[in-house]
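Incident log, support desk, overnight shift.

02:14 A customer reports that sequence design results differ from what the structure should imply. Their input is reproduced verbatim below. On-call engineer (initials T.W.) acknowledged and began investigating.
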């Protein structure tokens, strides 16, 4: 199943590669469930999160990922595992 991802200040090449890998990139006006919010702490902050109150499922939540310093493969692994690192 495609995951719905919102991007905030994420480079265009990351967006294009995620689409090529089968992810559904949505914008801030999307009215469905969001799986993941990607942002870069190099050029963004978390102050925009209140814009997503209507789409963040409070039972499951949206996973928030800072992509700063991460490769595309690392970003995809984080999205799929909903974890930055292994627990053990």
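02:41 Re-run completed on a clean worker. Output:
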């Amino acid at each position: 199943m495609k995951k719905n991802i919102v991007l905030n200040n994420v480079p265009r090449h990351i967006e294009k590669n995620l689409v090529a890998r089968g992810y559904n990139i949505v914008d801030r006006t999307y009215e469905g469930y969001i799986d993941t919010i990607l942002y870069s702490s190099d050029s963004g902050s978390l102050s925009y999160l209140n814009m997503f109150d209507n789409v963040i499922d409070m039972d499951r939540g949206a996973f928030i990922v800072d992509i700063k310093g991460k490769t595309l493969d690392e970003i995809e692994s984080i999205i799929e595992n909903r974890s930055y690192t292994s627990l053990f």
